[in-house]
Amino acid sequence: NASAGFANVFNGVWGQAISDVGGKVAFYWPNAGNPTSGALGGTVYRFDPLAGPPLTGTPTELTSGLAPTPALSSASTAVGPRGMVFDPANNTLYVTDDANNEIVAIPNANTATTAVTAMKVLLGTPLNTPQQITLNPTNGDLLVVNGNDNNLIELTTAGVVVAERNLAPTEGVGALFGLTATTDAGGNLVIYYDNAN
Fold first, then answer.
1. 69-101 tens-digit pLDDT
2. What 3-state class would DSSP assign to 3?
3. For position 58, what pLDDT does the model report?
4. 30: part of which helix (H) or strand (E)?
5. What is the 8-class DSSP label of residue 68?
6. Disulfide-capable partner of 101 in 24, 127, 183, 193 (CB 3.0 to 4.6 Å)?
7. Beta bridge mates, 4
């Protein structure tokens, strides 16, 4: 709430990620913006917990200037920064932005105390309304699902596309949103995703 320093920091929240800050869980979120006006969108914040319960802490704006939601008549079509994953190997937060088919990297995400400039990882094809993003635990690559063609994209953190596969080839577009990955007992990659169809 405003009294706790949270005035105007939640505006069309579509995703989340977590990391460890000083032995406590820090929480990240992106703002697509007000669902009808698009105001205050295109930002990413981190919350560092100080004590609790009740939970106290301070929100830090990590970056701004990502593509926010344009003025809309319905929240159901809001777009902007959406999927997020924190990579502890390089202290970087990766964010998908389905307003302009982009993945950006926010450096020093776990430690930054002021806003930094997000770096482009990949812009355009084969991204097609990218939704959730996660890490491939077997090699550190990024995995992202497209909302507009049901494709799963694997790319390096430098933006080199490694593989592409349609996860719902016989179904209508707009099926994929959630995504996570792990390994089985043999060390093989296992991907979990939801299918809205």
1. 665 545 556 678 889 999 999 999 999 998 889
2. helix
3. 78
4. strand 24-31
5. P
6. 127
7. none
CB of 101 closer than 8 Å to CB of 121: no
Main-chain phi, psi angles of 4, to 5 degrees? -95, 10
Pairing type for strands 142-146 and 151-155 reads antiparallel
pLDDT of res. 88: 93
Q: Which amino acid is at 165?
A: R
Residue with the two structure tokens 């295109």? 42
> Which residues, 6+ apart, have CB-to-CB distance to 69 below 8 Å?
12, 32, 33, 34, 35, 38, 41, 78, 79, 80, 99
User: Given the structure tokens 């939970």, which residue do they identify?
Assistant: 55
**Is the separation of the CB atoms in 83 and 144 below 8 Å?**
yes
Model confidence pTM above 0.85: yes
Backbone CA torsion sign across 19, 86, 187, 185: positive
Decide if pLDDT at 3 tops 60: no
